[in-house]
Every structure is written in structure tokens, then in C-alpha cells.
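Notes to self after the Tuesday call (sharing in case useful).
The group wants a holo model before anyone commits to mutagenesis around the pocket. I volunteered. Ligand is magnesium ion. Logging inputs and output together so the record is complete.
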Amino acid sequence: MSELSPIENFHGITLALSKGRIFGETLPLLARAGIQPLVDPETSRQLILPTSRADIRLVIVRASDVPTYVERGAADLGVAGLDVLMEHGGTGLHQPVDLRIACCRLMVAVPQGFDYDGAIRRGARLRVATKYANLARAHFAAKGVHVDLIKLYGSMELAPLTGLADAIVDLVSSGNTLKANHLEAVEPIADISSRLVVNAAAWKLHRARLEPLVNAVEQGVREFQRGGSGS
Ligand code: ATP
Ligand code: MG
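Result:
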């Protein structure tokens, strides 16, 4: 029991990533910075992944937990969607690089045929289901629209179909999920992509240690843009 865990023994750089889309799209950028995970998080249960660089490791966390890990210094850096970062808020995170991956839009969507503009003009009180309660609240407050926010943790599309809500605030990329559920996007809120984030205090105190990695990732993003390998 007295043996130190790998986390306490580690003095290198810790990067927080979520599984799935962000992991998949971040990997090629890390590869260009000379970093390859030695374990596949999609098949392994390991949450701390060593990489080809002994001084760099990955920690696998829930997408919405990335800001918390980085802000509190449990990870030095992380990759998170702008949606997650804006919803999290706060000032403890420095955002040096737009990775231009996992691009989508945060939008208001309603059942097809629902007169959204009319409802707003009439001053109707909309029931809005979303995982992004802070962003949705700010969006509708800025428009002067009264809403009842219904906080959900997933499958927002289901809310209007079941009568739980009149509208949703959710991420849209192709629009296929909305279409499959007879919904349509009626208003954009924000353009979203994933960002590299750094603990703000660490960026001031240990910048020399972190900057080469940040620069390498940034260079990778630029090479990708030039290579035109975007989907
Ligand atoms: P969890 O599944 O653990 O609840 P999550 O749904 O937020 O977390 P992902 O679906 O992997 O996890 O999404 C992670 C990030 O990818 C989001 O925060 C967003 O920035 C981006 N993203 C989500 N959906 C899309 C999409 N349809 N197209 C492009 N990017 C997306
Ligand atoms: Mg998801």
C-alpha cells in the first residue's frame, strides 16, 4: 500500500483526453508531435496511458471533465470542445491552439414545422432541453426570450418527441440526427471546434516545459491544414 502509484511518481507532462471522437481526431496531431499512445483506450481499461515519449502520458477522462482536470492541475494540458469549455466557464484555462477538429455548431432545434420565430414574437415561454444549461441560458437571455431550461445529460433529440420540451440546444454537424428525429435547426449559437487547453498557472510558471509540446501540436495543425486532409 505504501508503494507510490504511477501518478505520484510521474514528473513529466500529463495530457487529458476523452475517448471517441476527440481521441481519434487528436491522435494524428499528437503523432506529428512525435507522441503515440502505447495503449489503445478503446480496447483497454487503462485510464493512464503511457506514450512513445517517456515524459508524456495521457489520462482518459469524460469529455466534460477535461476542463476540471486541467484547471486543477491534475493534467497539465487537455483537449476539449469549445462547447465544453464555454459551458464550464472560468478563467483557469489558457487556450493556445484551435485544433480545428471535431467541428460542429451549437444550435437551437425544434420539431419540423414548429413556428419558432412566431413563438418568440408572441413571447411564448419555451421549454428548452439541453446539456448546455449555461450557454442556453445566456443565449436566450441575450435575445430577451423567456425559457424553462430542462437539464439533460444525453439524447436531447428525444425531448421534443416525447413532449418534454419545445426546443433543444445541441451540437449539430451533418444534421442527420436531427432529420432522423424530425427536428430542424433554427438558430446558430456558436461555431465549435476542439481546443488545446493549458492550466493557466502552469502556463505562467512552467511555460518553458510546456511550450515545446504546444508548439509541436500547433505545427501539426498547420501541416494538416496545408495537407488539406480535413474531411
Ligand atoms: P459523453 O459521451 O461522455 O457524454 P460527449 O457526448 O460530450 O461525452 P463526444 O460525443 O465524444 O462526448 O463529444 C466530445 C466533443 O466532440 C464535444 O464536446 C464536441 O466538442 C464534439 N462533438 C460532439 N458531437 C459532435 C458532432 N456531431 N460533430 C462534431 N463534433 C462533435
Ligand atoms: Mg456523445
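Two things stood out.
Residues 207-227 form the longest helix (21 residues).
The pocket of adenosine-5'-triphosphate (ligand 1) is lined by residues 18, 20-22, 62-64, 81, 83-84, 102-104, 154, 171, 173, 192, 194 (CB under 6 Å).
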